[in-house]
Amino acid sequence: MSKKTVNAWAIKEKGKALEPFSYELPPIGLEQVDLKVMYCGICHSDLSMIQNDWGNTTYPLVPGHEIVGEVIELGSQVKNLKVGDKVGLGWMSASCMHCDQCMRGSHNICSSVEQTIVGRHGGFADMVRCHWSWAIPVPKKLDLSKAGPLFCGGITVFNPIDMVNVKPTAKVGVIGIGGLGHLALKFLKSWGCEVTAFSSNAGKSEEIKEMGAHHIVDSRDSKGMVQIKGSLDFILNTTNVSLDWNSYIQALAPKGTLHHVGAVLEPMPIGAFSLIGGEKKISGSPLGSPALNRLMLDFCERHNILPTVEEFPMEDVNKAIEHLHSGKARYRVVLKNS
């Protein structure tokens, strides 16, 4: 087996634009698959890696971890896939398959999980490689051009619904109606919940209701927050900024949970008594396991759930990144390979 040349778009130095970049992949491993990239979403995590916000970026960096592609080569020990299959690949591209977490089905919290764009190159390219277990088949009824963001944004907000055991009778809230939050609205409405959206953008109100919100509360409005005090069983924070967390804890019903999937970097000043009296909880989660990804896709197919996306050609990657960075995206950006 020979090496393969990958043609990609990379940022070679912080603060620079992405430019054409080629690199070689070694011969394919026994349990690896090569994917021809058809579409790749752009996530705020890509922006964070491009800017080295988290301090773990290695340049040159090929971003892209919301990939939809076609299987073009298989290692000899790959399971459940064949050449020509359409699959998705998200933030994680391999896990050890032998630790306690992997053996329990929680591959997403494996201590040695391989991240698609950390220490390796991602999907702003014509090809990408991963372990077969993280190449998730896309149901035939789902539009491939829109499915990519499900493998990061989608599974990020679907995982807590399963993890916290949100009931279809629950009253729930979503903080931040952007790339993550708009998918959370769609999931939770189809789950059966009564959904409150926390949004400070009045211009989005009609869209927010169409995506699944029954109620909209401006969290800057103290009267609005008082009116929902003690009413919500579950609040999902999708933002990455510091907020008045105690006001959200007060909005929780007894035994309620405030769950974080947004990467808020600052410490959260929360008094213990605000949790103790009502047996309230604060939790967080990353993306989900391969099995949960498949469950999410089945749910999406059943309820016709897809991200709301804007599409750009792959060669317009810098224009697309600026569109997302400026806050203009409605609500996910997807690159299409020619």
Structure, explained:
This protein is of the alpha/beta class. The chain is 25% helix and 27% strand. The strands form 4 sheets. Strands 3, 4, 5, 8, 9, 16 and 17 form a 7-stranded mixed β-sheet that branches. Helix 6 links the parallel strand 11 (194-198) and strand 12 (215-217). The chain contains 11 helices and 17 strands. Helix 4 (153-163) packs across helix 5 (181-191). It has helices at residues 44-50, 100-103, 144-147, 153-163, 181-191, 205-211, 222-227, 245-251, 272-276, 290-303, 317-325, and strands spanning 4-10, 19-25, 32-42, 66-74, 86-89, 92-94, 114-115, 127-131, 136-137, 171-175, 194-198, 215-217, 232-237, 252-260, 281-284, 309-313, 332-336.
Average predicted confidence as pLDDT: 96
The helix/strand order is EEEHEEEHEEEHHEHEHEHEHEHEHEHE
- What is the tally of beta strands? 17
Provide the number of structural domains.
2
Oligomerization status of the protein chains? single chain
Separation of the first and last Cα atoms: 27 Å
Query: Overall 3D geometry?
Result: globular
Structural class: alpha/beta
Per CATH, the class of the largest domain reads: Alpha Beta
Flag low-confidence runs. Answer: none
* Helix count from the secondary structure assignment: 11
> Under CATH, the topology of the largest domain is which?
Quinone Oxidoreductase, Chain A, domain 1
Helix fraction by DSSP (H/I, runs of at least 4): 25-40%
CATH-assigned homologous superfamily of the largest domain: Medium-chain alcohol dehydrogenases, catalytic domain
**How would you characterize the largest beta sheet?**
7 strands, mixed
**What is the radius of gyration?**
20 Å
Question: Which CATH architecture of the largest domain is right?
Answer: Alpha-Beta Complex
Strand content: 25-35%
